[in-house]
Structures are given as structure tokens and as C-alpha cells.
Amino acid sequence: MKYDTYPLEGMSAPNSPSYMNLIKVKKLNENATLPTQGSEWSAGWDLYACIDEPVCIHPSCTVKIGTGLAFELPRYTFGGVFPRSGLATKRGLRPANTPGVCDSDYRGEYIVALHNDSESIQWVEPGERIAQLIVLPYVPVQFDLVDTLSDTERGAGGFGSTGTK
User: Fold this and answer.
1) CATH assignment of 24-137?
2) Residue 47 CB contacts under 8 Å (≥ 6 apart), including other chains
3) Is 162 in a helix, a strand, or coil?
4) Is the pLDDT of residue 146 over 70?
5) CA distance 118 to 111
């Protein structure tokens, strides 16, 4: 099936002539760095620390690091804030609420709650890449309270119910 526009309001379909979707971004601090991609096909856009001086994060602690940016995302999308793999594996730093969810109607500063999983003090430098933003669609829903649900083979089987292989 070919679309002229993506089914989500304000977004283009991958096979449309205007593949790139424009996201409005506002600098809340003149030192803020606009998001960048590591490569042409990267899903995530790097978010940068907008801080005046290095910030210390002690082991097992979380510190909020601002990006100095606010975004206007298309309706029916959200900004998922994910860890940067190198930062997580080499230094033990990752967003505390992974993934972080920034709703499309939020207009405030994107702040990354950076957690130190390592056993040593870690420093975040001004302008350092601290997380990655991925704009994702979601399905709007409503909840309907009912007395019964349809039957399935799995039923109410929870953790481990489908096997361990």
C-alpha cells in the first residue's frame, strides 16, 4: 500500500517524496546543541548536556541533566529517550527511566535523568552526548470496562508460561 502522507497527522510516509519529517525545536539556552545523528540511518538523535560546568554523578546515583531544548512533536508520537550504548557500556551511565517518555504535548525542556550504574564517580562534561531521542508513533486507545475477555490458548499464564527455551 502506498500513502501520499503517513497515517499519523503531520508525518510523511517512508515511500513519499518528502521522507524527512520536520520537528520543531526551540533553544531554551544559547549554549544548547541541536540533536545530531551518528550516521545517515541512525534511528536515534544524540542529545547533548547543556550545562555550564562538569557534573559529578556518584555510583548508584541519578542526576538530572538538561539539554536546553524543547520540542514540538507530531500528534500520536512521543519522544523516547534511550541510552547511548557506548556511554552505558563504557562508563555505566544511562537514563534512569529507560526509555523516558516525552509526550507530544509537552513543551518544556527535555531533561535526562542520568544514572550511574558503575562503581566509580562519573563526570558529565558540558556539550557531552548523554542520551538519544527516537520519535515513535503510538496507538491512541480508550479503555472499556467489561466482565469477560476473549479466551486464548495462553490464557492468564504469566511469567515463564510460554517456556524457557
Assistant:
1) 2.70.40.10
2) 35, 67, 69, 81, 110, 112, 129, 130, 131, 132, 133
3) coil
4) yes
5) 21
- What is the pLDDT, as a whole number, of residue 79? 97
Q: What is the pLDDT of residue 48?
A: 98
Phi, psi of 23 (to 5 degrees): -110, 125
β strands within 6-165, DSSP E: 24-27, 45-48, 55-57, 62-66, 69-72, 77-82, 93-95, 100-103, 111-116, 122-124, 129-137
Q: Where do the domains of the chain lie?
A: 24-137
Average pLDDT over residues 94-114: 96
Cα(35)–Cα(27) distance, integer angstroms: 11
pLDDT at 8 (0 to 100): 55
| CB neighbourhood size of 50 (10 A) | 23
Q: If you average pLDDT over every residue of the chain, what do you get? A: 89
Specify the pLDDT at position 1.
Answer: 38
- The per-residue pLDDT for 164 is 64
Q: Give 23-37 pLDDT, tens digit per residue.
A: 999 999 999 999 999
- How many residues comprise the chain? 165
By CB atoms closer than 10 A (0-12, 13-18, 19+), residue 72 is middle
| Site of grid cell 491512541 | 140
